[in-house]
Amino acid sequence: MAEQPVTSLVLVGVGGQGVLLASEIAARAAIAAGFDVKTNEVHGMAQRGGSVIAQVRYGSRVWSPLVEPGTARVLGALESIEALRYHQLLAPDGLAVVSSQVIVPATVSSGQAAYPADAQARLQRVFPRLVYADAVAEARALGDHRAVNLLLLGAMSTALELPMDAWEKAIVQSVKAGHLDLNLRAFRRGRELP
Q1: In 44-174, which ranges are continuous DSSP H helix?
Q2: What is the pTM of this model?
Q3: What are phi and psi of 8, to 5 degrees?
Q4: CA–CA separation, 130 vs 124, rounded Å?
């Protein structure tokens, strides 16, 4: 394989949305395609709906798992405000794939902050290349709203050069057999969103 520069992707959401599973699949797909891979995840208070971020970097040789601001090729967000929280990581020409799902954080439910009513407009201002979709409804139409993470990952995959067989191998390795068909369909449906 010829020398390949490092490609970075970022997944964000809140606890329980499947950010970590999606990042595991992305890392495994990159490994299956023959790349060196480094990952990083932060999920403080994730079980209570706290912010979760996972970073995946792959290339011929990767020295750090941390994505520098302005360098990610693609950012996937399972919750709108989480996309805004981490928008600075995306490259100026990068692709943002954002679910329109709103999950009210504890600071809002406790009255300490307000959820922005203009979240979509803010996303459009910070992301020149934005796919903004009701991914939960798309996943629900496939049979289960919990497949939303694979749906977003499918959309993100269109901005990455990893082959489809590497993605499918990674999904098979990462998802329980009973949920495999749904997750493969969600991933393929996601590839149709951009």
Answers
A1: 80-85, 106-109, 119-126, 135-142, 148-157, 164-174
A2: 0.93
A3: -120, 140
A4: 7
